[in-house]
Amino acid sequence: MTRKSTDEELMKSLQCGDSSALVEIYSRHATKIWTYIKKRVPRDNVEDLFQDTFVRIVEKKDTWNNQPLVLWVYVLLR
Q1: Can you tell me the distance from the alpha carbon of 29 to that of 50, in angstroms, rounded to the nearest whole number?
Q2: Stretch 67-76: mean pLDDT, rounded?
Q3: Lower CB density within 10 Å: C or N end of the chain?
Q4: What is the pTM of this model?
């Protein structure tokens, strides 16, 4: 049986340039992030902000410092 990587391991992999880590982060957290955004912005902006969030995760990956991943993403959305 293969062990799943933790969010922390995935972020460290992403920081080292492993783009497959982003695929797994998306798979795990897309629904939570979508729901979070949908509750906070006008309907017309949800899809764009959702897509921008994953771009920002890549752009800001080096600012992540072992904090819980989803909470860090929510801070990026502010």
Answers
A1: 11
A2: 95
A3: N
A4: 0.89
Residue 44 CA to residue 58 CA, distance in Å, equals 24
DSSP class of residue 61?
G
Instruction: In whole angstroms, give the CA distance from residue 35 to residue 37.
Output: 5
Residue entry with tokens 């982060």? 25
How far apart, in Å, are the Cα atoms of 1 and each of 4, 24, 25? Answer: 10, 18, 20
At residue 78, the pLDDT reads: 87
Q: How far apart are CA 30 and CA 44, in angstroms?
A: 18
How is residue 23 written in tokens? 């695929």
Give me 9's structure tokens: 């391991």
* Residue position matching structure tokens 């771009």: 55
Please give the backbone phi and psi of residue 48, each rounded to the nearest 5 degrees, phi first: -65, -45
